[in-house]
Amino acid sequence: MDKKILFDIVTSSVREVVPELESHPFESEDDLVGLGANSLDRAEIVNLTLEKLALNIPRVELIDAKTIGGLVDVLHSRL
Amino acid sequence: MAERVPGGVGIEAINAYGGAASIPVLDLFRGRRLDPERFSNLMMQERGVALPFEDPVTNAVNAARPILDAMSPEARERIELLVTSSESGVDFSKSISSYAHEHLGLSRHCRFLEVKQACYAATGALQLALGYIASGVSPGAKALVIATDVTLVDESGLYSEPAMGTGGVAVLLGDEPRVMKMDLGAFGNYSYDVFDTARPSPEIDIGDVDRSLFTYLDCLKHSFAAYGRRVDGVDFVSTFDYLAMHTPFAGLVKAGHRKMMRELTPCDVDEIEADFGRRVKPSLQYPSLVGNLCSGSVYLSLCSIIDTIKPERSARVGMFSYGSGCSSEFFSGVIGPESVSALAGLDIGGHLRGRRQLTFDQYVELLKENLRCLVPTKNRDVDVERYLPLVTRTASRPRMLALRRVVDYHRQYEWV
Amino acid sequence: MGPVGIEAMNAFCGIARLDVLQLATHRGLDTSRFANLLMEEKTVPLPYEDPVTYGVNAARPILDQLTAAERDSIELLVACTESSFDFGKAMSTYLHQHLGLSRNCRLIELKSACYSGVAGLQMAVNFILSGVSPGAKALVVASDLSRFSIAEGGDASTEDWSFAEPSSGAGAVAMLVSDTPRVFRVDVGANGYYGYEVMDTCRPVADSEAGDADLSLLSYLDCCENAFREYTRRVPAANYAESFGYLAFHTPFGGMVKGAHRTMMRKFSGKNRGDIEADFQRRVAPGLSYCQRVGNIMGATMALSLLGTIDHGDFATAQRIGCFSYGSGCSSEFFSGVVTQEGQQRQRALGLGEALGRRQQLSMPDYDALLKGNGLVRFGTRNAELDFGVVSSIRPGGWGRPLLFLSAIRDFHRDYQWIS
Fold first, then answer.
1. Active site residue B87
2. Is C in contact with B (3 or more beta carbon pairs below 8 Å)?
3. Where residue B262 sits, what CATH number does that domain have?
4. By the 8 A CB rule, do B135 and B175 touch?
5. Tell me, what DSSP letter sits at residue B383?
6. Residue-level pLDDT at C157
7. Closest CB from A37, A38, A63 relative to C218
8. What is the pLDDT of residues B173-198, one digit of tens each?
């Protein structure tokens, strides 16, 4: 899967979880904490993204991805 | 005695680990200038000494791994409960069992936890685990109980320094009790609050030895009485072919036996001595090479009986477990010829005799490092290679787990 | 196999509380998304309270309802905690002493992070089921606390506590387990375990947590899903959306449970967002009622959630409750049991909700003073006399029943005192 598509899936999850970011122009370097997502929000973003991708991997394996781009990269490597 | 599971439940396999090194106790007495008159009271030859890459996790894993290596993958998958018992916790929240689970390669569908109750903890854990097997909630399930401890005693502990050991005992429980079939329902507990010995910090053991000896004897008497109220027709002499008792040092076991014999039988001094030699002494062989293993102690005594006596027919063993604080239990089980073959492959005696013998100076040097074992440290590296030459390998123990480093409080291990 | 489960249970969650939104504001945390954490208040442990006092104060009302012969039939006492204050001497010995239990009782202390209470409950259930001592009872006491503290001259806002401070509570739940499970009858053999080694949160030094909150949340979710899958392997007919009238989960904070439930519903029911929210309000929210007022009490939290469910649910017909416990490190379990109207009536009579309301509100200056270590005893304290007037607005006593408090530490041994 194209990283661009993954990027869109991740950012759509972020928007769903943190509606305040509806019109935020996402960058690859955006880190989730900086975007105002708390721990719970970050877990839910991971959850939603995995579900959209129908990807069944342990969530804990995504722990090191702290930015949007980081999340895209690790997901890409697991597809 | 209740028997819900046909064939009974109990110990399927057992193994002891007594530290990578040892020191002759007499050398320790000389080095510390302790009164040699009191040496004979300990009835000890050697005590186990840890190397600086050993900790409660490696002791647990090094005791249990040989048992697991001898099992089929299907049998290993049936281990549904792992309990570690220790007074050497490496974290207040994270259990030793969580590390042991990883390095033993157990199933993720396994309940694991750690228990603490001073030297009684392993027996408490064993009884809880037997409950899981005997309850029948998961037919065919097995449970692994591992007693693991390290000693933190230095010269300030005076005569307790030569008596303390390090290591672990792993006990596999299930419904094929080749090593020992437990007498279910035959137990007696005795517990009350007393402040005899304690470990109020990760660096010190404190204790009121006199009080501890008194409560040990008091608990032996009363837990046996409680046992007698549950089991008809119990006699301290004729019911038990052997006795395995918690062994902080052999002299106390001897005193305990003598007290019971005096109070419960008409035997005279010579008869008591003969009875001790016959029923109790076989349990002291391994403890005299290891020292007090804390919660694993009584199970090391059991191994000692089986390997020393090599029973040719069924024999009942009375077991007494005591933990400071205090809580205690008298219980029993049956061993036989199959117990001997079940233990043979693990060669506990060979492992203990094969440990590297240290000089007093080497011991003192290592002790400084060993006392850091439980002190919370955010990051540290352990120089495994430096101490590795001190390790002797035996056929039954080709490899061991070692603490390599601590990263952000997380202990990291590797096989060496 | 005969019935087994909880005959009686009770919680005690201290005498002082703090409004956590006020605390978050005071700490300058970003509170814009605070509401979704579903936290209201937390219990703050006073210097003269410790895991023993919480445990004894929770268990005492249960024991007072028993006859002397019934009390003497308690043959197993399990203390579940990650807040102990000695490596060797177990907390169970203190509980045993101050609860006046029989000396013919097996004592044990158990540690498995926040899973300890459920691990203890299940060990007790197995003891009863094994039939080794017909008619025996077991007492399981889960007791935990966190004490935050600031080094001399330190400043709370610079410490990296984020949301750990508002979510950490203090308290205990006691459960009497027997073959007459009037409150919660355990579904025997219906358990799913899931555990593996992970360093999410830990407690390398006494009284305070360290670790990675994100990792812990992800691990919680992984475990919830996999423990439930293992449960369905043993109970093939089980269905997450249909089989359980209520759900009681380990509650580090309410929002975590809401998130986990949402994930489970999406995974196992295919229901839409609106239905999931309604289902949450109906089946899960009752279990959060007390947890939101106390904070995370670690090993005792799942049991506190069960108490909330029992007190606030509708048991006109008997209901099956699905329970999930998670402990960092990590180990977890999904299991279930049944509660009837009688169980609810018995629990409501103990008045837990009123007791929580009776806790005194701490002012922010009083709370900060406690954090600076006023009158505090720590792990390893050798000698101390506790000052019952350390917070001038709060006095121990006047609770309507005697409560146990820590009065002194003499050469590491802790002395306690009953105060009416």
1. yes
2. yes
3. 3.40.47.10
4. no
5. -
6. 47
7. A63
8. 999 999 999 999 999 999 999 998 88
Predicted local confidence at residue C359, as pLDDT = 97
**Tens of pLDDT along B343-381?**
999 999 999 999 999 999 999 999 999 998 888 888 999
Q: Do A38 and C217 touch (CB under 8 A)?
A: no
Identify all chain C residues contacting A20, using CB atoms and an 8 Å cutoff: 32
Chain C residues whose C-beta sits inside 8 Å of any chain A C-beta: 30, 32-33, 36-37, 163, 198, 212-215, 217-219, 221-222, 255-256, 259, 262-263, 266-267
Is B3 a domain residue?
no
Q: Is A10 on the interface with C (CB under 8 A)?
A: no
pLDDT of residue B2: 45
All chains having 3 or more CB pairs closer than 8 angstroms to chain C: A, B
pLDDT in tens, A33-76: 889 888 888 999 999 999 999 999 999 999 888 899 999 999 99
Asked if pLDDT for residue C156 goes beyond 60, the answer is: no
Which residues in chain C touch residue A46, judged by CB atoms under 8 angstroms apart? 218
Best interface-test mutation with B: which of C104, C200, C234 has the largest number of B CBs within 10 A? Answer: C104
User: Looking at the 3D structure of chain B, how many domains does it have?
Assistant: 1
Whether pLDDT at B334 is above 50: yes
Q: Return mean pLDDT, chain C.
A: 93
Q: Say if CB B296 and CB B148 are below 8 A apart.
A: yes
Q: Which of B81, B83, B93 is most worth mutating to test chain C (most C CB atoms within 10 A of its CB)?
A: B93
Higher pLDDT, C65 or B198: C65
**Residue B2 forms part of a structural domain:** no
Cβ A60–C212 below 8 Å, yes or no?
A: no
Q: Which of B101, B110, B119, B176 is catalytic?
A: B119
Beta strands in C196-267 (DSSP E): 201-205, 208-211, 246-249
The first and second tokens of residue B143, run together, are: 């449970």
What is residue A54's predicted lDDT score, i.e. its pLDDT? 92
Dihedral, CA of residue B45, residue B48, residue B51 and residue B54, to nearest 10: 170
Q: What pLDDT is attached to residue B1?
A: 43
User: Is B132 within the bounds of a domain?
Assistant: yes
Q: What's B324's DSSP letter?
A: T
Amino acid B404 reads R
pLDDT at C153: 52
Position of tokens 């269905």? C239
Q: Which pLDDT tens digit goes with each residue over B114-157?
A: 999 999 999 999 999 999 999 999 999 999 999 999 998 899 88
Evaluate whether C311 touches C348 at the Cβ level (below 8 Å): yes
Q: Chain C residues with CB inside 8 Å of B94's CB?
A: 113, 199, 202-203, 328-329
- Antiparallel, parallel or unpaired: β C170-178 and C184-195: unpaired
The pLDDT of residue B11 is above 80: yes
Q: What is the pLDDT of residue B201?
A: 84
Expressed as residue numbers, the domain containing B49 is 10-415
Out of B114, B132, B325, the one facing C126 most closely (by C-beta) is B132
ipTM of the complex in this document? 0.94
Query: For C89, how many CA atoms within 13 A lie in the half-sphere containing its CB?
Result: 28
Domains in chain C and their CATH numbers?
5-419 (3.40.47.10)
Given a contact cutoff of 8 angstroms between Cβ atoms, the answer to whether C88 and C414 are in contact is no
Chain C residue with minimum CA distance to A47: C263
pLDDT confidence tier of residue C154, bands split at 50, 70 and 90: low
B4 falls within a domain: no
According to DSSP, residue C37 is labeled: G
CB-CB contact of C327 with C300 (8 Å): no
> Using a CB-CB distance cutoff of 8 angstroms, which residues of chain B are in contact with residue C195?
98, 101, 108, 110-112
Question: Which residue of chain B is at minimal alpha-carbon distance from C80?
Answer: B115
Cβ <8 Å between B325 and C226? no
Residue to test with chain A: of C34, C160, C218, most A Cβ within 10 A: C218
Q: Which residues on adjacent β-strands are paired with residue B329?
A: B189, B321
- What is the spatial distance between Cα C124 and Cα C111, in angstroms, rounded to a whole number? 15
